[in-house]
Amino acid sequence: QVQLVESGGGQVQAGDSLRLSCAASGRAFSSYFIAWFRQGRGKDRDFVASISWTGGTTYYANSVKGRFTISRDNVKNAVYLQMDGLRPGDTAVYYCAAVKQAAVRSPSDYDYWGQGTQVTVSS
What we know:
By secondary structure, this protein is mostly beta strands. It contains no helices and 11 strands. The strands form 2 sheets. Strands 2, 4, 5, 6, 9, 10 and 11 form a 7-stranded mixed β-sheet that branches. Strand 7 and strand 8 (about 80-85) form a beta hairpin. The protein is globular, with a radius of gyration of 13 Å.
């Protein structure tokens, strides 16, 4: 089992950058596939990015490709989401999620979730 805690959200202007962190506790963090999802008010929870166990493979939603970068540090038990060129449409609560087997885009594939961190981008 793994516990996830997100941090790093905040309120920024369009074009700014933020770096979200997902700190994990529990055993064998490197055995988990990790993803970031986001949920705007009144909207579904959408896939943002995911990263494989060693960090060698990453996936991105088309809406964030080229602007966001997912990475992980298995020594520090952490996953990061560097968000550059933020837009008002990126406003949402951002969640990290974990699962042991390979998964990519579907929230239902993930077993463990953090509580979320709010990102607000104003124009």
